Amino acid sequence: MEEKKIPLLLFRIGNLYFAVRNSIVRTIVELEENNIFPVVSFPDYVAGLLKHNNRVYVLICLAKLLEIHNCQDLNEKETVVIEINGKTWGLIVDEVKNIFEVEKEDYKTGEVNVFKVDNLVVEELSDTFFFNHINIPSLSSNVKEETQEKKTSENEISILLMKTKNSTVGIEISNVLKIEEKEHVKSHQRLETKSLFNKVYLIGERIIKTASLDDVIEIEQSNTEKPVIVIVKGENNKILGLEVEDASELIHVKESERINNPNQEAKFGFFIKHVDTAVPVLSKEFLNSLLEKEGLEEKEEHFTKEDNTETQHFLIITIGDKEFALEASQVERIYKTEDIHLSPYPTKVKAIKGVVTTKKESYFLISLEEILETTIEKTDENRIVVLKTKDGKVALKVSEVNNILEIPSENYFKLEDEGKFLIKGTILDENGKLFEVLNPEGVLAESKNEVLPGR
Questions:
Q1: From CA 369, how far away is CA 84, in angstroms rounded?
Q2: How far is CA 228 from CA 92, 180, 247, 254, 438, in A?
Q3: Is domain 153-302 classified as CATH 3.20.20.450?
Q4: How far is Cα 422 from Cα 440, in angstroms, rounded to an integer?
Q5: How far apart are CA 112 and CA 401, in angstroms?
Q6: Which end is more exposed in the chain, N or C (fewer Cβ atoms within 10 Å of the end residue's Cβ)?
Q7: Which residue has the higher pLDDT, 219 or 259?
Q8: pLDDT on residue 447
Q9: What CATH number is given for 5-136 in this structure?
Q10: How far is CA 396 from CA 107, 161, 318, in A?
Q11: Does the domain formed by 311-447 have CATH 2.40.50.180?
Q12: pTM here?
C-alpha cells in the first residue's frame, strides 16, 4: 500500500527550524571532543571530521551554509548523518526535535520547501539543496576497491631500509607490522637466555621480543643500544622486533631490477641497487624461520592482517605540530636534507619553496607550513619525501618520518573526488586513532602550470 505521508526529521539551528526527509537519515550522534578531528584545506563550512562506530564522516556546519552562525563551539551539539545517492555527510545542528509528517499531496520537490508545524515555520532542505551547496565529496570505505598499492606491487616491490652503524639491510614492507621508537615504549626487561632475542618490550598492548639487527645478520654480539624497533611479522601469526638505528627510508624497486640469491637457505633473498650500493634484503623464508623459532604469538584481535583481509601501507609523517599519513605506494624516495641540493625558484605559488636536485632528478620542493599554519623546526630528523603523482613527482618537506602502518582497507575512508583537495581521506589505526591522508595531487594542484628549469 502506497504511503500517503512523508516523515521529516525536525531540528533547530539558532532560532530557526529546519527538516530533512527521514529516509535519508542514517544516525544521530552527539558531538564530543574525543570524536571530532580537525581537517585542512576544505571549504570554511566544513567543521572537521566525525569518527563514529569505526566510520568517518565529513562534518558540515549547516549554520555557516545558511549564514546563521559559525559553529565555533561544537561540544554537545548534535550531528544528523545523512546519505543521498551514496554520498554521506554529518550535518551539525543545535538540537534535534522530533519527527513530523506531511501529506504527500502537499509535498513539493524544490530546493527548500516550507511547512508550518505546531506554529513553527519549518524549512525542509531537499536533496537538491545539499548537492547545490555542498561542494565537497563524502568519505567512503576503501574495502571494495583494489588498492593502488596492490596494483603497484605487480611490477614493483616496496622495501624499507633498516640502518645500523655499519650496515643497511632491506625488508619487504609486507613483512613490517609497525615501527616504534624506544622512547615511546612503556617498559622492557632483559631475558636470561642465550638467544639473540634477549629483550622484551611492552609496545601498546603487544609483548615483543627484540634483538639487534647487527646480531641477527652478523651472528656477533652488539652492545650498542638502537633507538628504533621494527616489528616484523610473517605467515605464522608471530611477531619479533629488530633493533636498528634508523628505519625511515622507503624505496620501490622493479622486480626485474632485483638480483636473486641462488642460495635458498640464506638470510638474504635478493639484492637491490641503492645509491650505488648493493643492499641485501632479508628473505621471507629466513624471516618465517626466525619468527617460528623466536616469535611470540600475536593476539588475534591485534593482528593487522587476518585471513584474506586486504590491507594497505601508510607512511606516518609530521609537519610542524601536525601528523599525517601518506600512501606508501606513492612514496618514491626519502632523503635526508643534507643529501639534496636546494635552489631558489621564482614563483607565485606559495607552497613551492624552490627546486630540489639529487644526482639524477629535479623536483619542486613543496612546503605546507604556511597552508597548515605551522613551522618545521630545523633538526636532524627533517626529511624530504619524494611523491609520485599522475602529473609527475614532487618533493615534500616534513619534520619527521614517524612510522609505517598496515591498515585494513575497510579502515581507509577516501574522498570520492579527492583530486583538488589537500586531503584525500582518513585512516583509523588499530587503536582507533585517526590520521588524515595527504593527497599529492592536491599538493601539486597549484603548481601544474609551473615548469622546472631545463625542461
A1: 36
A2: 42, 6, 7, 28, 25
A3: no
A4: 7
A5: 48
A6: N
A7: 259
A8: 53
A9: 2.40.50.180
A10: 53, 19, 11
A11: yes
A12: 0.70
